[in-house]
Design brief:
Layout (H helix, E strand, L loop, with lengths): L7 E7 L22 H19 L4 E7 L1 E3 L18 H9 L6 E4 L11 E2 L1 E3 H15 L6 E7 L5 E2 H12 L5 E4 L14 H7 L7 H14 L10
Parallel strand pairs: 1-2, 2-7, 3-6, 4-9
Antiparallel strand pairs: 5-8
Helix pairs in contact: 2-4, 4-6
Bound molecules: uridine-5'-diphosphate-glucose (UPG).
Uridine-5'-diphosphate-glucose (UPG) binds next to helix 2 and strand 4.
Length: 232
């Protein structure tokens, strides 16, 4: 970047830097802490970005803290195709729906939430893409300075069971479930404060969980075995 005199950067950070926040919705200037190794990598890279902007005042950096990206392009031609058994909730639900996996393991049903399952702020990937365009536009405004974090979330929390119900409705498929113990390193409830991105980037998520599930299912039903198709 130094060689090409590039001093503007959009960094893909994550809501994982909030750990389990004291207060939700999470505001950007809340205390940061990692609950797992992945979270710590994001936290350290944010710290490095902050250090760079302190050391060299001509750098302009935006940290985009993604909440839980899900869904697919509306065409159904571009979507997530994880290698091996998926770790994340939506690709796992998708693989149960198309018959690749027998049932969903629900990690934790004794959280202090409305139905006992953990709460996240799921965001449509197309909204996330728009958030990047808004961030780039912001970086190129003459008054932008320093290293500034923005949440990319919807501001709404959805439990695991609510997400499963929404997916069942969108797909018409039953998702068999097994209630399991909590997964180590998982937070109880995390969702975004969205005012800063709305005010300063002019960006707001447009899609709700019904549309997220619709587009996830459109991709899944057209590509049940991902990009490669089923191996013989
Ligand atoms: O098979 C599964 C997978 C997940 N969950 C639960 O579903 C919720 C969401 O899990 P997941 O989709 O794995 O998301 P997070 O653990 O919240 O983390 C994701 O979202 C973060 C914020 O964007 C990213 O930083 C991480 O990379 C990404 O894994 C959690 O309560 C999990 O316990 C299940 O019950 N069963």
């Amino acid at each position: 970047m130094a060689k090409y005199n590039c001093k503007k950067m959009v960094f893909s950070s994550s809501s994982t830097v909030y750990g389990q926040p004291e207060k939700i919705p999470c505001v950007e200037d809340t205390e940061l802490k990692a609950m797992n190794p992945y979270g710590r990598t994001k936290l350290f890279l944010e710290e490095i970005a902050r250090d760079i902007s302190q050391a060299e005042s001509d750098w302009q950096i935006i940290l985009l803290r993604y909440f839980n990206p899900v869904a697919a392009h509306e065409s159904g031609k571009i979507g997530e195709d994880p290698k091996g058994i998926p770790n994340n909730l939506m690709p796992y639900i998708q693989q149960v729906a198309v018959g690749r996996l027998p049932e969903l393991n629900v990690y934790g049903h004794d959280y202090p939430t409305r139905d006992g399952t953990a709460i996240r702020d799921y965001i449509h990937v197309m909204d996330l893409a728009d958030g990047h365009i808004a961030a780039l536009k912001k970086l190129f405004t003459p008054d932008f300075k320093g290293c500034v974090p923005y949440n990319l979330g919807t501001g709404r929390g959805t439990s695991v069971l609510e997400m499963v119900a929404a997916f069942e409705k969108a797909s018409g498929k039953k998702i068999p479930m097994k209630l399991c113990p909590r997964r180590a390193g998982d937070a109880t409830a995390v969702y975004a404060a969205v005012d800063k991105a709305a005010k300063e980037l002019g960006w707001k998520a447009k899609h709700g969980i019904e549309e997220m599930c619709r587009d996830q299912w459109n991709w899944a039903s057209k590509n049940p075995w991902g990009y490669q198709g089923k191996k013989a």
